[in-house]
Design brief:
Order of helices and strands of chain A: HEEHEHHEHEE
Protein name (chain B): Phosphate-selective porin O/P
Largest sheet of chain A: 6 strands, mixed
Organism (chain B): Halomonas ventosae
Structural class of chain B: mainly beta
Distance between the termini of chain B: 13 Å
Number of strands of chain A: 6
Number of helices of chain A: 5
Shape of chain B: globular
CATH architecture of chain A: 3-Layer(aba) Sandwich
Shape of chain A: globular
Number of strands of chain B: 17
Oligomer: heterodimer
Largest sheet of chain B: 16 strands, antiparallel, barrel
Helix content of chain A: 40-55%
Structural class of chain A: alpha/beta
Number of domains of chain A: 1
Protein name (chain A): PBP domain-containing protein
Chain lengths: 148, 406
């Protein structure tokens, strides 16, 4: 009896989710761009490579230069949007990927910044740095990387 | 949620000098000493649980008012002395029942990772040292609460009885990531010696003899495909673990031990929920001992798990988890008969219904609790329940855990 009701409960939760998943995303905010330190000589990345870099599985730019990854907090709306829209992954998947790397010795954690101003400053001053910014935070201190 | 803070030490000059020496032979740009130390990261974790059972003991005297003897403490350090090289090591102290001695600090992993190829299309690398085995979804970080969906991983696959066998190997591991049009394919192959500790002797009933199991060359491989950014993940893992039993003269005689598990893993991810399932077949062979006949047994394990994230920092879990020690004797009745009724049939299987809740009020703090209703004692730790005749078939377990990390 217990098992049956559990099964029913699970099925119900699943169904609710499937229905909710159909509702389209609302309100498109300002565009988020991939940015890098000016000394990086790669100007274009495909989505899979970008995802591998942000998941900390790939440690160098395609040119061979070391990458330093900067991210905002998981609960920062710009981080969540960047992960979902540009990388097609959910923030919780990225967090779990980092934890698995860090605690199995297969990779390192990204560097965390508090806000976009700090993001711009750290990316501008760290060789090989990669990060992301909303268009209004862009200036000449960082370069925009185009994503295929 | 923020990622664990990294501590940066800028003036460890001797360490930088060593790191620089280590990568002298590699081509390409070597970081300046400051650049190298800028990549130094340290992380750690601590988990303490309370285990309460109505019958049978799990991780200590849980039946008598509860056991606090489930503690996991670890710390790791990593460094990138060269753009293609990662050095990483972790020490772990883990107590899961037993006496305090079990909690001695051990090297969990320690490796040099050289990622020799890294393009837009693929990455390829080699790791040398003590490497965590990529087995199923959870094995590599099975002792880190923050990477587990529940306080206890599904015990049918991630049980403790022969934990040392599957945990890590001393040898080398090759990894390859290929980006396809639809997703990412990741392959790993490792060779080396398994870590074999007393738990394996105990699980095989060899602990009553003064001899010991010595590891032989073992292999592990995993193929993993992540579709559409990890919305769908599928993996196939297999290992061949070999050991030789070095017997004292006479009983039980020298023998060999083979363990060949296969695991198929599947996960479907949405923003607020995930569905996970794994299925495993475990083949265990003992050969050549003169104290008992050669034996081959095929165990079977599987679970289905649903996790739901809500209110930003909560996660709920429902799971059904099932294990049989011998596929040809699912009820354990033949086994019971073969022991003349001395060891009950319910020691040969376990069906576990789990309900769990996790709360992460701060990125560095996690509180969890879960309830298990179990039919059978197939994965019940032997050291907590030395006499199988005194175990109960149906039992319930309640766990609470506090986890911290930096």
């Amino acid at each position: 009896m217990l098992r049956l009701s559990l099964l029913a409960l699970t099925a119900l939760m699943l169904l609710t989710d499937l229905v909710l998943a159909e509702i389209p995303e609302v309100a498109r905010e300002e565009q988020i761009l991939l940015v890098a330190n000016p000394n990086v000589d790669t100007h274009q990345l495909n989505r899979d490579t970008t995802r591998a870099i942000f998941a900390m599985r790939q440690r160098t730019w395609p040119s061979g230069q070391a990458v330093r990854v900067f991210v905002l907090g998981n609960n920062h709306p710009v981080h969540a949007r960047f992960a979902k829209e540009q990388l097609s992954v959910y923030p919780h998947q990225l967090q779990l990927a980092w934890d698995r790397m860090v605690f199995s010795g297969t990779g390192q954690a990204p560097d965390r910044v508090r806000n976009q101003a700090e993001m711009r400053e750290r990316v501008a001053n760290t060789p090989g740095a990669i990060g992301y910014l909303e268009r209004e935070y862009l200036d000449d201190s960082v370069q925009v990387i185009s994503m295929e | 949620m923020t990622v664990s803070k990294s501590f940066r030490w800028s003036d460890f000059r001797s360490l930088s000098a060593m790191a620089a020496l280590l990568v002298l032979g590699l081509p390409g740009q070597v970081h300046s000493a400051e650049g190298v130390m800028g990549t130094l990261q340290m992380h750690g974790f601590l988990s303490q649980a309370l285990v309460i059972t109505d019958d049978n003991n799990f991780f200590g005297p849980s039946e008598d008012g509860g056991s606090f003897k489930f503690t996991e403490i670890g710390a790791n350090v990593s460094l990138r002395p060269h753009q293609d090289v990662l050095l990483a090591a972790q020490v772990l102290s883990r107590r899961a029942g037993g006496d305090g001695e079990d909690a001695t600090l051990k090297l969990d992993y320690g490796l040099i990772d050289y990622q020799m190829l890294s393009t837009q299309q693929r990455t390829f690398g080699i790791q040398v040292g003590r490497i965590k085995n990529p087995f199923g979804f959870y094995n590599q970080t099975r002792d880190v609460a923050f990477t587990r969906p529940s306080i206890l991983l599904p015990q049918s696959i991630y049980f403790d009885r022969t934990r040392s066998l599957g945990l890590a190997g001393d040898g080398l591991n090759l990894y390859h990531e290929e980006r396809l049009k639809t997703g990412v394919l990741r392959l790993q192959a490792g060779f080396g010696k398994a870590r074999i500790e007393d738990d394996a002797d105990r699980a095989l009933g060899l602990d009553r003899f003064p001899g010991s199991l010595e590891p032989n060359t073992s292999a592990i491989t995993q193929a993993r495909y992540e579709h559409d950014g990890g919305r769908i993940i599928m993996a196939l893992s297999t290992a061949s673990v070999n050991a030789e039993y070095d017997s004292p003269p006479g009983m039980p005689g020298d023998g060999t031990f083979h363990f060949k598990p296969w695991v198929v893993s599947f996960q479907y991810n949405q923003e607020f929920w995930s569905l996970t399932a794994e299925y495993a077949i475990r083949k265990l062979e003992l050969e050549g001992f003169n104290a008992f006949a050669d034996s081959e047994r095929n165990g079977e394990s599987w679970y289905v798990q649903y996790t739901r994230r809500f209110l930003d920092d909560w996660q709920g879990l429902v799971r059904y988890d099932s294990l049989v020690n011998d596929r040809s004797d699912r009820s354990g009745k033949e086994f019971e008969a073969s022991t003349g009724g001395a060891i009950p049939a319910h020691t040969q299987f376990a069906d576990d219904i789990t309900l769990g809740l996790q709360w992460t009020p701060h990125p560095r703090v996690m509180l969890a609790s879960e309830y298990h209703h179990v039919d059978g004692t197939g994965w019940l730790p032997i050291q907590d329940n030395p006499d199988p005749a005194k175990t109960e078939r149906y039992w319930n377990m309640l766990l609470f855990q506090l986890s911290l990390r930096f």
